[in-house]
Amino acid sequence: MRRNVGVAPAAAGIATVLFVLWSWLTLRTPTLAGLDALSDGPGVEASSPAGQILAAFALASSPVIVYGVVAGFALWAFRRRLNRLCWAMAASIPVAVGAVYLLKAWFGRPRPAFVVPLISAEGLSYPSAHMTAATVAAVMIGAAQVVTRRRLLVTRLTLLLLAVVWWAVFANRFLLRAHFVTDLIGGGFLGIAVASLALAAFRVHVNRLTPAWNGDVERRVGVVYNPTKIPDLGTFRHQVQGECEQRGWLPPLWLETDAQDSGAAATRRARRADVDLALVAGGDGTVRTACAELAGSGIPVGILPAGTGNLLARNLGVPLDMAEALDVAFDGRVRAIDLVEVRADDREPDYSLVMAGMGADALIMAETNDDLKKIVGSAAYVMAALQAVNRPPFEARIEVGDDEPVERRVGLAMVANVGAIQGQIQIAPDAAPDDGRLDVVVASPERPTDWGAITTRILARAADAPGVERAQAKVVVFETRAPVPYQIDGDAMGTCTRLEARSLARVLEVMVPGRR
User: Fold this and answer.
1) Among 259, 333, 425, 449, which residue is least crowded by beta carbons within 10 Å?
2) Considering Cα of 154, then 53, then 125, then 119, what sign does the dihedral take?
3) CB-facing half-sphere around the CA of 129: CA atoms within 13 A
4) DAGKc domain location, by residue (predicted)?
5) pTM over 0.90, yes/no
6) Alpha helices (H) in 351-396, listed in sequence order
7) Domain segments of the chain: what residues?
8) Over the stretch 210-231, which tens digit does the pLDDT of each residue have?
9) Strand, helix or coil at 282?
10) Which of 106, 102, 95 lies closest to 135 in space, CA to CA?
11) At CA 169, angle to CA 75 and CA 60, rounded to 5?
12) Helix, strand or coil for residue 46?
């Protein structure tokens, strides 16, 4: 993991000190009176062509418009799973607006005497709301450039453009005599303080590392990704490429999945290329397929969560923020975890990392509307669950390890490699991904209304309660008289009458948070 914290905390502290010092010098001492004297004379005429252009620019650069741009960038970041950057941008808006309002009321400084009478120049003067907003926007857009690892030339050109716009706002407010010069500079300090504080509070790592090159060893990463799960492939590629450059790694090997292959062929290419790290970007299905191919290879897997559930990532503590997940993938620690071999009837074996089961869970996965899932996320499963609980139970023969088989009439029979499902609900609280054992959960409702009580017992982590049975074993077999739907890691797989699950202990290496 990165040992430095970036420039945001230091920038927030320095800018805050400078704002306080500047405010004291401006409002409590005559030290900066010479700067303020520049606003004593008349500026442009409001009715002149120049005045009308400046008035239009003042309206276009008003805080309402500028903060709307920041909000748009926050939405842009959210769609790209840059969650921390998104929340930092969103939080900076009310903090900046509130700070300007309170400080203006506290200081009570009037506008210059020759202020051009415009709607954008009403009220009190210190600090400048326009300059605060422009500065917040500049810092946040600049941070987005760094976080997404844009090319150095692109970043520099963007920062240059932001600087030009910032100075244009400064000049506009000065020429309209809307503020004293000290108001404008004070607004700049306040904007830096607010934006940097928001970035620091949400732990956005803003620090462009110097590209390195390790001459002793050439390391390369293979990137297996599902393009349907990546909303902005350009930004995604820039991020991964930038992380490689900054660590002295070779350019990444890009391996795209498609509708006919969910990642097996792409991962085999990465394995043949003998990459040092495999990044897997997609949902649980893509992650499951890629990890199955990498089991026993000694190649560590870095998970870049890009699906709806992201259950393996959540259970291993891998951040859902794309920038943080990349940090963990490159700089985290290696953890060896189990893989579950799943055989349905006489078919070829499949593999699970999270949970596999028959009955209600499979029905939920099969009946969840994919379009609804894109809109409301995990909440889409609730609608499917309401339909699944009305299905009648099925007869099952359950064999757990070396124990005698038992007959049950069940609604759900599941094996778990990890404990939590959506919403961090612990359905198998004793499950550990590296203990070499499967956790078995069997739910036996007599009627649909029993599901409420069963769910309560599961959430209460009751070991064995009416309607709920738990066990642990290395091998588990479920057999039914009639075909029953089954699922693996959230993917509906069809139906079967026999499901055998076997734990393959610690055959997969995954990057998780922590230092090597």
Assistant:
1) 259
2) negative
3) 29
4) 257-346
5) no
6) 360-367, 370-376, 380-388
7) 8-201, 221-331, 350-502
8) 555 555 568 999 999 999 999 8
9) strand
10) 95
11) 55
12) coil
